[in-house]
Design brief:
Elements: H1 2-26, E1 28-31, E2 37-39, E3 49-55, E4 65-68, E5 71-72, E6 85-87, E7 99-101, E8 110-118, E9 123-134, H2 147-182
Parallel strand pairs: 1-9
Antiparallel strand pairs: 2-7, 3-4, 3-8, 4-5, 6-7, 8-9
Helix pairs in contact: 1-2
């Protein structure tokens, strides 16, 4: 019985690791300079919002986009985002408050926070964080930059190592169990 417990634990930990890696990959967007990207964010239906804001920690009190009173508010918007950002759906159907960022540059590289102003608590509440990676290279010799490929290779390597370790642990426990039974 003990010989099955340790490998099972290894597989459970490996599964948890893969789930966490996949969740992180889903919140990472990769783009080439000049492209338009959508940074996804969906507000849960139980949240009552009065406004919403996309921000980046390095911008201080300035923001990427602020939407309140059913319109964009450019007052304290960081200058580098003026005329380059919008909501994917200004009506916010089904809680969709995804950000469209046009003509990305390497300066746009970073973590973006999707926040809502909660009408009930009267405070800003973080809903989602999305990392944007903008490749600095353009042209024929570029690195692919594909997050999916990188994650796939990492997951494959981890699965292979876990399988080998799990097999070795199982074999060791099986041998110990056989030795105990022979006495």
């Amino acid at each position: 019985m003990a010989s099955l417990t340790l490998p099972s634990l290894c597989w459970a930990l490996l599964f948890l690791f893969v789930v966490v890696l996949a969740a992180q990959a889903q919140n990472t967007i990769t783009a080439e300079p000049g492209q338009a990207v959508v940074l996804p964010c969906r507000v849960p239906s139980d949240k009552i919002m009065q406004g919403m804001k996309w921000s980046r920690a390095d911008l201080g009190k300035e923001y990427v986009l602020l939407f309140r009173d059913e319109q964009l508010d450019p007052e304290e918007q960081h200058p580098s985002f003026k005329n380059r950002v919008d909501l994917q759906d200004r009506k916010m159907n089904n809680g969709n408050v995804s950000l469209v960022l046009k003509n990305v540059t390497t300066a746009d590289d970073g973590s973006y926070n999707c926040n809502i102003f909660n009408k009930v608590t009267k405070s800003w509440e973080s809903i989602n964080t999305v990392s944007l990676t903008v490749s600095g290279q353009t042209g024929g010799d570029t690195e692919d930059g594909s997050v999916g490929l990188k994650v796939g290779l990492i997951v494959s390597a981890v699965l292979l190592v876990a399988a080998v370790v799990g097999f070795l642990i199982y074999r060791k426990h099986k041998q110990q169990h056989q030795c105990q039974n022979s006495y």
